[in-house]
């Protein structure tokens, strides 16, 4: 394969990204691939003097470790890249050179892989000088949006650790994420492979004698690395032969030097400033232990380098170290400066042979970070992205559909035509457009999202017809023919709530206002509970309904029932009214009180008519099966059950000239 790696930082800079890029380049070349580096340099013109390395002009920003802010576009370099016939582009960062890589990939239709190296949420202090929480929150939200956009606009993302992958998912990145720890040339850091004469020269340069025990920090010297913690803690190290060395440069260097002087330990802490990257194995070989209090690492390359050199690691606990630093085996954890000092004293008080015993365990724990394995894992991601890109869909037509976009696609291989519904957010995020392309993996992801989108639109249609509660929408989604997963259903319902399409509080208020004048409290509660409204919320809205209000509603309902019930005895009519009131949630006492207050004079006058009608019905029912005495008894029993008076029944029988035994 022909591979171009776009990186905003490269040799001679010293940092984890540079180490990763250098290692990846070597590993891929050892696998037989052709690798090109596109980066920046301090200058006003492009530099192509190095083999397979293209450097864009850039300005040095000293406050950011001498970072080179390169130009975001170079037509000349772009034309040279076009002639390389690249198979894949790998962007390593988020700034100007990497932006250039994305532009080139878009113009030349080359698939892109993106490695997320830096936990930027740990770097917000650079724009939040006054430590304002509101500004910090805004900055982190903006970062989240930017990283989500960058992650979702490539074929695949590489995360060097699970910590990084979790951060990307938290930001909302939905493209495939591959956890691939950065590899390392482990052999280069082993003491037996280091030039010991160079080590001896460093000892002489920094005046380290045979009795000196050295613990070193190696890396950028910046606020997010929290080096001030170990500088402060070092004053408590009791062994006078123990010294600490800070190898590296950065914006916090002067402050740390001042801190050491203020504490009176400037003769025990050595600050080397920035050193050449090729000297790093020598500096590791110079030390007896390694320390870094940083919690901002995405993987922690310096930790791995130190362990490869056989050095026990002193660190604050971070999940990226869970499979690297094992207490009292490959290193030691501390929470503050004083605990750091105590553990340093404890370690250096061990016999020499016990300290040496750490070496084998340290080197064993980093064997999995072999360069070849690292390169092979990245190679497999390239192949997957290229395969997806080749099996892509062309966007033949685009039209709006409410708040979505409906795409007509044609598969480049099979020429199959398919329609796809995408949200406006996804349409913008994934940079879709007419005559553009959708890689196969993105198509599959969008197809899964389409199911969610269709369910969302079905919910809106249902809500437009009638207001719904959270439970009603949840039940609707669960009972669909091809339902979403539970997590998706919960997310969709939460989305409906956040957009104001469903609101149980408002629903309860409106329901009580609409039906509160006609339904009892109990029935309101029963119906709202059936709709999933919490009891506490219902009670809150029913507090204003008094006992007098309840009786007034019962009276209104009772009159309606009184008018609607016909051809019944007065007793049966009263019983029926009471039962209906009780079914509607009114108490037995309330039902009795209301019925007693009703005016049944007119009903009493009509009772003879009701009795006559009931008699006719009973006679039609029983005359088919019974006669004479048995018929009379059946009719009497029926009319008694209906609540008619016995004497009235006898009079009705005499009137009908039907006589029989009582």
UniProtKB/TrEMBL annotation:
One of its GO terms (cellular component) is cytoplasm. Keywords: Cytoplasm, Transferase. Residues 14-187 form the Glycosyltransferase subfamily 4-like N-terminal domain. Residues 203-364 form the Glycosyl transferase family domain. It is found in: Cytoplasm. Its main location: cytoplasm. Gene3D superfamilies: Glycogen Phosphorylase B, Winged helix-like DNA-binding domain superfamily/Winged helix DNA-binding domain. One of its GO terms (molecular function) is glycosyltransferase activity. SUPFAM superfamilies: UDP-Glycosyltransferase/glycogen phosphorylase. One of its GO terms (biological process) is regulation of DNA repair. Residues 613-651 form the RecX third three-helical domain. Belongs to the RecX family. Modulates RecA activity. HAMAP family: RecX. This is Regulatory protein RecX. It comes from Breznakia blatticola. The lineage of its organism: Bacteria, Bacillati, Bacillota, Erysipelotrichia, Erysipelotrichales. The gene is recX.
